[in-house]
Design goal:
It is built from 1 helix and 8 strands; from the N terminus they run H-E-E-E-E-E-E-E-E. By secondary structure, the chain is an alpha/beta fold.
């Protein structure tokens, strides 16, 4: 019991001493600049938030075009239970008639990414990401939501599921962000 009191007194003494030390320590003004050189990073212009929906029941694959810096909120609806994969980004979500699959992407590399139904073994869409122009003009192959299939698959990063182009993520998936 005596040892416990001594320990409490010692802890209180340490608390008082550390509080005094913190109060007496000099505070550095946030406006002070101690560096002698400065660099200015050029950030790309901010992108747009695009909200798109792919209906898996459509015959032609959807084509969604965006530029680097754009964020895509993608919803996939289906009449049957299946899994939706965005090949090349490592994203996989369940879809059923009552619950759409939802993806949120902020791509960091240009390319073409296939959106597939795994059980049905069918391509339901393509996400095409183009480089952003510095002039502020849009550099999209076409406007979002166009329903034309792609010309020919190329060797862009999105073609192989083993590629990981590195997009932002809030899920545990490395490479892209998916939100349910």
């Amino acid at each position: 019991m005596v040892a416990a009191r001594r320990l409490i007194v010692l802890m209180l003494a340490l608390l008082v001493v550390s509080s005094i030390a913190a109060a007496l320590a000099p505070v550095r003004d946030a406006g002070e600049d101690t560096s002698t050189t400065s660099t200015t990073a050029t950030e790309p212009p901010p992108g747009e938030l695009l909200r798109e929906t792919i209906d898996a029941g459509e015959r032609k694959p959807a084509r969604i075009a965006l530029e680097l810096g754009d964020q895509l909120e993608l919803q996939v609806t289906a009449r049957r239970v299946d899994e939706v994969e965005i090949a090349g980004l490592g994203l996989l979500e369940q879809v059923d008639p009552n619950a759409a699959a939802r993806f949120s992407l902020l791509p960091r590399e240009a390319g073409r990414y296939e959106v597939r139904l795994l059980d049905a073994d069918r391509t339901i869409g393509w996400i095409e990401i183009a480089e952003r122009r510095d002039t502020g003009e849009r550099n999209r192959p076409d406007e979002p939501g166009r329903r034309d299939p792609p010309d020919q698959p190329d060797d862009s990063p999105g073609q192989s599921p083993s590629d990981s182009p590195g997009s932002s993520t809030t899920a545990s998936t490395v490479g892209a962000r998916s939100a349910s």
